[in-house]
Amino acid sequence: MNQSTKHANVTDLASAPWHDDIFAALKKAKVRQVPYVPDAGHARLIERVHADPEMRGIVLTTEEEGVAVACGAWLGGERAVLLLQSSGVGNCINMLSLVGNCRFPFLALVTMRGEWAEFNPWQVPMARATQGTLELMGVTVLRVDKAEDVGETVSAALDSAFNSDQAVAVLLSQRLIGRKSWTR
Amino acid sequence: MSGSDDTSTPLDRRAAVRALVAERGDLLVVAGLGSSAYDLAAAGDHPANFYLWGAMGGAALMGFGLALAQPTRPVLVITGDGEQLMGLGGLATIGVQRPANLTVVVLDNGHFGETGMQRSHTGLGVDLVAVAMACGFAWAHEVKAADDLTALARRSRSKSGCGFARVVVAAENPPRVLPPRDGVHLKHRFRQELGLGVS
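YS: structure for the whole thing
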């Protein structure tokens, strides 16, 4: 299946090595299911997931689907990690009650929009609410601003989630991801 | 369109669910919140039953993640029309992946039974079988006769293609039979049944 995203600066983003650090951490932790709503900031990672025979990339129509998929995966003994953009965090609110009530391990990797050199004001409200929304629903939030910290933070979040039955989200800051080009 | 102009006698939901889980063998079951969960509990509690008490719209997707993780076991999702309608996009997500061991059964009474029997979209003409077919499920059909439930049960155990069935049931609320509602307990006993570790 062709899951590639056509976007002006995806190629630039795809070259950033921290995407590969995330992939390496997911591989090392034996993550098998990767449900996602696409984001340009995750494009390289999504491509690598689809190319890996041990992983299944699962495109979603809305982010809360991935919460339920991840819980079902764990019920059956597999690890899943949800990829989404900050604008999709709000969509997950009620489904996160499944994670909290059953103490399912949960990890979401959230690419941030609306917080740094943002062109599109419609991204801003949910960006402001992202961390609070997650915390209100019992999810521990870790934030990464520097490329060199990405791999270790995701690895630590994987350990917290799957060794300690925690719900964790890693916010990948918009400054880390880079400015979106609107000129072509 | 199916639903509102239906003249056949709808099935009894409790009897339908009993038939679907009879002699269940290695079947794994996820039930959506409300009446579907009560129906499954009424058919007999089992550690390989996972009952949702919330997370509306998530039942089929939870069964889907489970089916991917346990490809050698048949996975049956039993849910209501209202619950499935809240996760309608999930049928597209599942239809793209199509695990052969997953069957989604919607007990369709055309109403929101738990909240006062307001008519649902299926009661107003939306056809979930057509939706499932359009989303790419390997098979999808209606069940209106009790005799066809046995065939549906058999098919759901066969792991022969990602399937969907709309079982037409009467719009009535039988007395509640309450399953366990502690989520951690339900999770642990389910995983233990599969031989998985409990943290």
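YS: worth flagging: Chain A is about 45% helix and 20% strand.
IM: good catch. Also The first strand of chain A starts at residue 31 and ends at 36.
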